[in-house]
Design goal:
By secondary structure, the protein is an alpha+beta fold. It has 3 domains: 88-212 and 274-409, 3-Layer(aba) Sandwich (Rossmann fold), CATH 3.40.50; 217-266, no CATH class; 413-500, no CATH class. It has helices at 97-100, 109-115, 134-142, 158-171, 193-197, 200-212, 218-245, 251-258, 277-281, 309-323, 349-363, 386-400, and strands at residues 4-6, 15-17, 22-28, 32-37, 43-49, 55-60, 66-75, 78-95, 118-125, 145-148, 175-181, 293-297, 331-334, 367-370, 413-419, 422-427, 431-433, 441-444, 450-452, 454-458, 461-465, 474-477, 487-489, 498-500. The strands form 5 sheets. Strands 2, 4, 5, 7, 8, 9, 10, 11, 12, 13 and 14 form an 11-stranded mixed sheet that branches. The longest helix is centred in the middle third of the chain and has 28 residues, at 218-245. The N and C termini lie far apart (66 Å).
Length: 501
Amino acid sequence: MGVFQPSSLFSDGAVLCRGKEIRVFGAAELPVTAVLENSRGELLGRDTAESRDGRFLCVLPPQAAQTDCVLTLRCGGEIRECRNVAIGDVFLANGQSNMELELQNADEGPDCIRNHSNTLVRYYNVPKCPRVGPETEQANRDARWRTIAPGSGGDMSAVAYFFAMTIQRHTGVPVGIIDCYWGGTSISCWMREETLQGLAEGQRYLADYAEKTRGVTMAQYLEKEAAFQQAFDRWNQAVAALREKEPGIGWPDINLRLGPCPWNPPAGPGSPYRPFGLEGTMLERVVPCALTGVLFYQGEEDTARTERYEELLTAYIFQLRRQFMDSTLPFLNVQLPMWIDANARDSFTWPRLRLAQQQAASQVRHSGLAVLLDQGEYDNIHPTNKRVVGERLALEARRVIYGEGDAEQAPRAESKYSRDGALHVALTQNVRLRDGGDTLLEIAGEDGVFYPAETEIRARELVLSHAAVPRPVQARYAWTDYAIVRLFGENGLPLAPFWLK
């Protein structure tokens, strides 16, 4: 008997995507037949696929949301049966550490884990594999779907958890999350080499990494990686011990007592931080399953590396749509919040990346952007209040995926015009100033020199002026790495950052 190893995405408790063709795939040397039946044993779909280059892909017809289905796969004399299969909405949760932050480490997480129960919310963790090898293959064979029940879910993305629970309550259908992330990764780690080669900025990323790793062997890299990991683990263990001893201790005191985080992962041929590395070792493992949408929280790693992030992000969105064989696959992104290290100077790189995320969202159809400007924390790049992030992504999903035109959105700047020495900015909804203080609004004339704006709020319009700018032509908001946000819509969502030129 030849090799027959369906992807572990197709295992007991799996969630398959409703309303789209269902793709079942894996490794095989002989033809594979896939049969999907409902809870009454009625045939929902059947397909037989030949093996090509040791792989198979069976395609079953779209189905409505339901539970208790059975998926049977036959290859020669072997039969694999997947029970308790649900059909509903399936989301890929992708990105770096703020998507990676697990439920067990989030606010409300321990309480949720003790008490939650929802058999219609399930998750699948793509194994974190930086390199291809026997351990990678075994980890992927062992991966399984898990259901939200008391005591489970601690290792699920907290952002994806709160998103899934919110969406499941709203739609009433099963929700599956495919967790696929790695902390500290650049967007280039998730992009195909051919995608990067097709962009001038992508070529620069490739060239920069090649220069860093010139002459570094795999053995040399693995030795450096082990030393780094030991130092990193010791520091994290010391932080955990200090927090247990002194609950509520802040990052400035932690850094003073223990020193800064030793975040200096080495570069090398086996690094998870190399361009296009995790695309092949993780993302490709779940291609081309049918998806309802993509949840993406990434960008922190690229703030100081590029001024053309929107090009990389846009190319990545279209890459995903090609990989998952869905030209309109919805892409829901999280805009970076406020953040700065203690005692650091403002680099103005974070607002630049926020603007790039906004530009990509406005230019790419079937995409959404969850505005998170008010959720950052001074000197903490990993805020633990992930409920807000998940719920704001859910609002974007309601608008972009479920077609709810009345879903709440963050207020945004629409247009501007000059009159009587002031710049008038039209907004999508009324805004209010909370607690007084700096509005973070600025204006500039033809010389491009910005000044803090004297601000008059007229419901859905901002009237901005400054004595030094008699003819204002530009306006921008929140052009800073970190500050307190005070402008909010009547729905409680923060005004989105903008730069009107």
